[in-house]
C-alpha cells in the first residue's frame, strides 16, 4: 500500500513540478530564516549567523536535488528532456530530418499498404460468428457419363441435391448455406421509377443466422422464407448508405427486382460484403426463388434449366459451417461418399475404375476461392517491398551515421568529462525515436491513400482500409527500426578512441578509419544488389504485361464497341428475335459503323459455356477437360464484325431459322483436333437435344481471356435458339468506337426508349481486364524499383558527397604535393566502383536465383530472360553514375589553398 | 561528546515520527532542532537531510502537511502525523527494538 501511495504521489507531482519547486524554495527559505533567527538570539553577529545557519543545514543545492529526484519520476523527466533536446537538434538540421522522415514514411507506408492488401485478400475472415469454421464446398471432378451442365464455375457450382443432402448430415456440418447470383454481372432493379443495376444473390433461409451476421435495421431471413420463396429482400449496409442515406424507414418499402416487387425486410450489419469470392460486394440478398422472372445466374428458364427442376444443372454455390472441433480434412473425407452418391442420383451408377469424386473445403477467408489467383502475385510484391524497406533502412542508417560522425567531438568531450555511454545512447535513441514517430505518422497517412488506390486498380470492392493488425505490424516495424537506428550510430560514436577525436580537427580527417569505412561500403554494395534484383524483377513483370498486351487476339478488338441490350419485361422468343433483328438493322446503317452483330456471351469477359463434346453421336470422355466444346450463340454478322475470316464452308445464314435444322460453325482447333486428316463439314455435333450440322470453319481467336489455351469452339445462329437470352451487341466501327457511343445510344432508344446500355466498352478493354492482375503487378513493380533506384541514388549521392567533403583536406594536401586531378578523381571514385562491382556480383546471381519463384506469374517469358537481366545491370550502373556526377565534379574542382585553410 | 555518528535512513524516519508524535505539528526546522536537542548534538545530522526523509514520509502517507506562517513571518510547511503514521509508529518501534536487542546480544561477550 505504501508503494501505491508513493507511486500516486510521484505521478501527481509530475504535473506540478514548477509549483512544487517554488514551494520547496519557500520551505527552505523559512528554514534558513529560522536558523538565522536562532543564531542571532544566541548572540552571533549577522554574517556569522547566516554562515552558521547554512553550514548547519548542509548543502542547499544537494538537498534541492535530492528532493527533486525523490519527488517525481526522474526517468520520465529525463526522457522528456531527451526528447525536447532531440527535437531541437533535429530542427537545426531540417534537410536531414525531412529526408530521414520521408524515407521512413515511404518504406513504412508501402510495407503497410502491401501488408494490409495481403491481409484483406488472403487472410481476412468474414465478419461472421466463428469465421474459421466456414468453408466453401468445391470439387475437382464431375461424374462420368452423367449429362451434368455447370453454370458459374466448374469447381464451385453444385447441384441443389447436394445442398439438400448435406443438410441431412449433421455429424460434421452444423449449417449449410446456399447462394446463387441472379446474374453473371449485375441485375436490374427499380426503386420508385429509377432503374439501376446492382449485384444480387438469392440465398438460403439460414444465410444470416448461420453466418451470425447481425442486422443494422429490420429483420433477417428465416427458413420459411426459403421454402415459400418469399418476396423479401435484405439490403447491404453500403447500398443502404449509398442509395437510401441510411434512412430507417426503408423497412417495408418496395423494390422491383427484374420487374418483381420485393419488400425490404432489413439491412445487414456494416462491413459485410456477402460471401461471394473475388472481392466484389453484394448489394442485396433475396431468398432462393422458384419463378421464371428470377432465374439463377440470369439463365432464362426457356433453356429448360431451373435449380429445383433440374438436379443435373449444377448452379448452386455452397458454404458450410463445420461442427466445432471438426477439421476440413476430416469433414471432406466424411462427405466424399455423400458427394459421390448424390452426383449419380437418378442416373446409372459409375463404372468401377472411374475417377473418384471428392470434395475440397476451402477456407472462407480473404477472397475465398479467388485467393489462389492473388497469392503468388502478392507474395512477389511482398518480397519486393521488403527489399525496398531494407534499402530505405540502410539509407537512414547511413544518414544517421554521417550526421553523428559530425558530432564525434561533442561525444568525445562529454565522455572525457565523465558521461557514461548510457546517456549518449539515450540521446541518440530519442532522436531516432522522433524520426521514426514522424515517419510512422506520415507513413500511416500514405498507407491509407495507397491502399485506396490499390483497391481501385485491382477492382476490389471490399474495403482495404488498414485495420488493427496492420497497425500493430506498422508499430512493430517502427519499433524495430527505432532500436536498430538507435544502436547503429552508437557503435560508431562511442567506440572511437576519445583522445584521437579530440586531437583531430573538427570537420575533416586526414586519414580515414578503415573499419568504419568498410561497413559503409558493404552496406552500399548490399543496396545496389537489392536494387539490381528489383530492377530485374520489374523487367520481367513489365515484359510479361507487354506480352499480354501484344498477344494476337485473332479479332479486331480495338475497333469493336460492345454493350449489352436486354429487352425489358418477359418478351416471347419471337419478340426478342425481332428486337435484336431490328436493332442490328438500325445499327448497320449508322454512319461510322462497318457492321453490327450480337452474341450471347461477350468475348473477353471470362464467361463461357462449355459442354462435353458429342460428335457424330459419340460422347467424348472428360479426359481432364480436353474434350470440352465451348459454344456461343451469335448473329450471322458476328464473324465479319469481329474480323474473323471464314476458312472453309459457309457462314451462318438468314435462312437458318427455328424450323430448319440447327447448324454450327466451328473453329480451326476443333477441325485440327478431331478431323486432322478429313473435313469436319457435314458432321454432326451435339447430343439428343441440340444436334447441329457443321457447315463452316473459321480461324482461331481468343475467346474468354487473353491468355487462354486453344479450345474447340462452335458458334450457333441465335435465330435458331429455343431460348434467346440477353444478348451482347458488338459494333465494328471505322474510327474510335467510343466516339460512336452517343449515336448508338440514340439508335437503341429508337427501338426501345427504356433500355440502358449494359457496360458499354471497347472490346479490347474487356480483354484487358483479363490480365488486370499482371498489369497491376507490373505497375507496382515499376513503382517499387523506381523508388528503390531513387533511394539508392540519394543514399549514394549523400555518401559520396560526405566522403568528398571529409577528404577535402586530404585532396588539398595531395594536390599541393603535386598529384594530378584525374588521379585524385579515380581515388575518390574507386571505392564507388568497387561497391558497384560487388553489388552487381551479389545482385545479378541473387536475381537469377529468385526469378524462379516468379515463374508462375510470368507469361510467355522465361524467368531467366536475358533482356531484363541486362536491363537491370545497366540500370544499376546508371544509378551509380547519376549519383556520382555532382560529388565527382566537386572533388575535381577542389582548390588546394582553400582546402588547407579551412579546418 | 565524541565524533558525530552517521544516521541511517530508516532511523531518521522513526525519529521524525516520534518527534511529531510528541510535539504535534511542527515545521522542518523545528523537527531538526528537536532531534539535535534530544541527541545532545551527538548525531552528525545535516539539517538538510530531513527534507528528503520528510518528503518520503509524506509520499507514503504517514505524515500530512499544511502551509502556515513561521515565527519569522515566512510561509512555511508544517507537518503532523496522519492516522496511518500513528499506526505505523508502533510497528516501527517494535522493529527497531528487535534489531537493537539482537545487536546487543551479538555484541555481548559470550558466557
Q: Keywords for this structure?
A:
heterodimer, A: 903 residues, alpha+beta, 5 domains, 27 helices, 51% helix, elongated, B: 111 residues, three-stranded antiparallel beta sheet, 3 strands, 14% strand
In total, how many beta strands of chain B? 3
The largest β sheet of chain B comes out as: 3 strands, antiparallel
How many DSSP H or I helices of chain B? 4
Summarize model confidence as the mean pLDDT of chain B.
84
Helix-strand pattern of chain B = HEHHEEH
Mean pLDDT of chain A: 83
Report the CATH C-level class of chain B: Mainly Alpha
Largest interface: A-B, 29 and 25 residues
Largest sheet of chain A: 13 strands, mixed
What is the multimeric organization of the chains shown? heterodimer
State the CATH architecture of chain B: Orthogonal Bundle
- Radius of gyration of chain A, taken over Cα atoms and rounded to an integer in Å: 38 Å
SSE-based structural type of chain B: alpha+beta
Unreliable spans of chain B are: none
Q: Low-confidence stretches of chain A at least 5 residues in length (pLDDT < 50)?
A: 506-511
Shape of chain B, please? globular
As for the number of domains of chain A, it is 5
What does the secondary structure layout of this molecule look like, with pairings?
The complex is a heterodimer of chains A (903) and B (111).
Chain A: H1 2-14, H2 17-42, H3 46-57, H4 60-71, H5 74-92, H6 94-123, E1 134-139, E2 149-150, E3 157-158, H7 160-168, E4 173-181, E5 187-191, E6 194-198, E7 200-203, H8 207-211, E8 215-218, H9 223-228, E9 232-235, H10 237-244, E10 254-257, E11 260-268, E12 284-287, E13 313-314, E14 316-322, H11 328-343, E15 359-363, H12 371-405, H13 408-416, H14 421-457, H15 468-494, H16 498-503, H17 514-549, E16 560-564, H18 573-588, E17 593-599, E18 609-612, E19 614-615, E20 618-619, E21 628-634, H19 638-642, E22 646-649, E23 663-667, H20 668-674, E24 684-685, E25 692-698, E26 713-717, E27 728-733, H21 741-751, E28 758-762, H22 763-770, H23 772-806, H24 808-816, H25 821-850, H26 866-892, H27 896-901
Parallel strand pairs in A: 2-13, 7-12, 9-11, 21-26, 23-25
Antiparallel strand pairs in A: 1-14, 1-15, 3-14, 4-7, 4-14, 5-6, 5-10, 8-11, 9-12, 10-11, 16-27, 16-28, 17-27, 18-21, 19-20, 22-25, 23-26, 24-25
Chain B: H1 9-23, E1 26-27, H2 28-38, H3 50-60, E2 63-69, E3 75-81, H4 83-107
Antiparallel strand pairs in B: 1-3, 2-3
Amino acid at each position: 500500500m505504501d508503494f501505491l501511495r508513493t507511486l500516486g504521489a510521484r505521478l501527481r507531482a509530475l504535473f506540478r513540478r514548477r509549483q512544487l519547486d517554488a514551494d520547496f524554495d519557500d520551505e527552505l527559505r523559512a528554514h534558513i530564516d529560522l536558523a538565522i533567527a536562532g543564531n542571532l538570539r544566541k548572540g552571533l553577529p549577522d554574517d556569522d549567523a547566516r554562515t552558521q545557519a547554512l553550514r548547519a543545514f548542509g548543502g542547499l543545492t544537494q538537498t534541492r536535488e535530492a528532493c527533486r529526484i525523490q519527488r517525481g519520476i526522474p526517468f520520465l523527466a529525463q526522457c522528456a528532456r531527451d526528447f525536447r533536446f532531440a527535437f531541437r537538434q533535429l530542427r537545426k538540421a531540417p534537410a536531414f530530418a525531412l529526408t530521414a522522415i520521408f524515407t521512413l514514411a515511404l518504406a513504412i507506408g508501402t510495407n503497410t499498404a502491401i501488408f494490409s492488401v495481403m491481409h484483406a485478400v488472403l487472410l481476412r475472415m468474414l465478419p461472421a460468428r466463428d469465421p474459421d469454421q466456414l468453408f466453401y464446398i468445391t470439387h475437382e471432378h464431375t461424374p462420368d457419363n452423367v449429362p451434368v451442365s455447370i453454370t458459374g464455375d466448374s469447381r464451385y457450382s453444385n447441384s441443389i441435391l447436394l445442398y439438400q443432402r448435406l443438410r441431412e448430415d449433421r455429424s460434421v456440418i452444423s449449417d449449410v448455406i446456399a447462394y446463387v447470383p441472379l446474374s453473371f454481372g449485375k441485375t436490374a432493379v427499380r426503386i420508385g421509377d429509377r432503374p439501376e443495376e446492382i449485384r444480387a444473390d438469392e440465398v438460403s433461409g439460414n444465410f444470416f443466422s448461420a453466418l451470425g451476421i447481425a442486422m443494422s435495421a429490420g429483420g433477417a431471413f428465416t427458413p420459411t422464407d426459403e421454402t415459400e420463396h418469399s418476396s423479401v429482400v435484405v439490403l447491404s449496409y453500403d447500398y443502404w448508405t449509398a442509395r437510401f442515406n441510411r434512412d430507417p424507414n426503408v423497412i417495408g418499402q418496395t423494390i422491383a427486382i427484374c420487374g418483381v416487387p420485393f419488400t425490404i425486410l432489413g439491412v445487414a450489419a456494416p462491413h459485410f460484403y456477402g460471401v461471394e469470392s473475388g472481392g466484389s460486394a453484394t448489394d442485396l440478398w433475396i431468398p432462393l426463388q422458384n419463378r421464371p422472372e428470377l432465374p439463377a445466374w440470369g439463365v432464362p428458364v426457356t433453356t429448360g434449366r431451373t435449380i429445383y427442376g433440374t438436379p443435373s444443372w449444377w448452379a448452386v454455390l455452397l458454404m458450410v459451417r463445420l461442427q466445432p472441433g471438426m477439421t476440413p480434412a476430416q469433414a471432406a473425407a466424411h462427405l466424399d461418399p455423400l458427394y459421390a452418391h448424390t452426383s449419380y442420383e437418378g442416373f446409372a451408377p459409375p463404372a468401377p475404375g472411374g475417377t473418384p469424386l471428392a470434395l475440397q473445403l476451402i477456407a472462407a477467408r480473404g477472397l475465398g476461392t479467388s485467393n489462389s489467383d492473388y497469392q503468388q502475385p502478392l507474395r512477389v510484391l511482398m518480397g519486393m517491398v521488403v527489399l525496398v524497406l531494407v534499402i530505405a533502412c540502410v539509407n537512414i542508417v547511413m544518414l544517421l551515421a554521417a550526421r553523428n560522425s559530425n558530432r564525434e567531438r561533442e561525444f568525445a568531450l562529454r565522455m572525457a568529462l565523465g558521461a557514461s555511454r548510457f546517456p549518449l545512447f539515450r540521446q541518440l535513441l530519442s532522436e531516432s525515436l522522433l524520426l521514426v514517430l514522424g515517419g510512422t505518422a506520415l507513413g500511416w497517412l500514405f498507407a491509407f491513400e495507397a491502399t485506396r488506390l490499390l483497391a481501385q486498380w485491382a477492382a476490389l470492392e471490399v474495403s482495404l482500409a488498414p485495420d488493427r493488425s496492420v497497425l500493430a505490424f506498422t508499430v512493430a516495424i517502427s519499433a524495430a527500426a527505432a532500436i536498430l537506428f538507435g544502436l547503429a550510430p552508437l557503435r560508431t560514436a562511442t567506440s572511437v578512441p576519445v583522445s584521437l577525436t579530440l586531437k583531430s580537427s573538427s570537420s575533416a580527417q586526414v586519414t580515414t578509419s578503415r573499419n568504419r569505412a568498410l561497413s559503409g561500403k558493404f552496406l552500399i554494395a548490399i543496396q545496389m544488389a537489392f536494387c539490381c534484383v528489383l530492377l530485374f524483377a520489374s523487367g520481367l513483370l513489365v515484359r510479361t504485361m507487354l506480352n499480354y498486351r501484344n498477344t494476337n487476339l485473332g479479332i479486331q478488338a480495338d475497333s469493336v464497341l460492345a454493350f449489352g441490350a436486354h429487352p425489358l419485361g418477359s418478351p416471347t422468343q419471337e419478340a426478342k428475335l425481332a428486337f435484336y433483328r431490328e436493332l442490328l438493322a438500325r445499327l448497320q446503317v449508322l454512319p461510322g459503323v462497318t457492321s453490327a452483330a450480337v452474341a450471347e456471351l461477350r468475348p473477353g469477359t471470362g464467361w463461357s459455356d462449355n459442354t462435353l463434346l458429342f460428335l457424330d453421336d459419340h460422347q467424348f470422355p472428360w479426359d481432364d477437360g480436353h474434350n470440352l466444346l465451348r459454344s456461343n450463340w451469335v448473329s450471322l454478322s458476328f464473324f465479319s464484325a469481329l474480323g474473323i475470316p471464314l476458312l472453309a464452308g459457309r457462314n451462318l445464314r438468314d435462312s437458318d431459322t427455328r424450323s430448319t435444322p440447327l447448324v454450327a460453325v466451328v473453329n480451326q482447333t476443333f477441325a485440327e483436333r478431331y478431323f486432322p486428316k478429313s473435313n469436319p463439314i457435314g458432321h454432326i455435333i451435339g447430343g439428343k437435344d441440340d444436334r447441329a450440322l457443321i457447315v463452316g470453319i473459321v480461324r482461331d481467336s481468343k475467346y474468354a481471356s487473353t491468355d487462354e489455351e486453344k479450345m474447340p469452339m462452335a458458334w450457333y445462329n441465335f435465330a435458331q435458339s429455343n431460348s434467346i437470352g440477353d444478348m451482347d451487341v458488338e459494333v465494328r466501327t471505322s474510327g474510335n468506337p467510343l466516339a460512336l457511343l452517343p449515336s448508338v445510344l440514340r439508335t437503341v432508344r429508337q427501338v426501345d426508349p427504356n433500355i440502358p446500355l449494359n457496360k458499354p466498352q471497347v472490346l479490347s478493354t474487356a480483354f484487358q481486364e483479363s490480365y488486370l492482375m499482371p498489369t497491376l503487378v507490373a505497375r507496382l513493380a515499376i513503382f517499387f524499383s523506381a523508388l528503390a533506384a531513387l533511394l539508392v541514388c540519394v543514399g549514394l549521392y549523400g555518401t559520396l558527397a560526405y566522403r568528398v567533403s571529409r577528404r577535402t583536406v586530404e585532396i588539398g594536401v595531395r594536390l599541393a604535393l603535386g598529384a594530378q586531378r584525374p588521379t585524385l578523381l579515380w581515388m575518390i571514385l574507386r571505392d564507388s566502383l568497387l561497391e558497384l562491382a560487388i553489388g552487381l556480383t551479389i545482385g545479378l546471381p541473387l536475381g537469377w536465383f529468385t526469378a524462379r519463384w516468379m515463374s508462375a506469374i510470368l507469361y510467355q517469358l522465361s524467368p531467366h530472360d536475358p533482356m531484363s537481366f541486362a536491363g537491370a545491370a545497366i540500370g544499376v550502373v546508371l544509378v551509380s553514375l547519376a549519383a556520382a556526377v555532382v560529388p565527382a565534379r566537386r572533388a575535381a574542382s577542389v582548390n588546394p589553398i582553400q582546402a588547407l585553410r579551412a579546418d | 561528546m565524541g565524533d558525530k555518528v552517521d544516521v541511517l535512513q530508516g532511523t531518521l524516519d522513526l525519529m521524525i515520527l516520534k518527534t511529531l508524535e510528541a510535539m504535534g505539528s511542527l515545521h522542518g526546522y523545528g523537527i531538526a532542532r528537536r532531534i539535535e536537542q534530544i541527541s545532545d548534538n551527538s548525531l552528525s545530522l545535516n539539517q538538510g537531510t530531513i527534507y528528503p526523509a520528510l518528503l518520503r514520509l509524506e509520499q507514503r502517507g504517514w505524515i500530512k502537511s499544511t502551509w502556515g506562517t513561521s515565527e519569522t513571518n515566512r510561509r512555511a510547511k508544517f507537518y503532523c502525523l496522519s492516522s496511518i503514521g500513528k499506526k505505523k509508529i508502533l510497528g516501527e518501534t517494535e522493529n527497531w527494538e528487535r534489531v537493537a536487542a539482537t545487536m546487543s546480544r551479538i555484541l555481548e561477550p559470550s558466557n
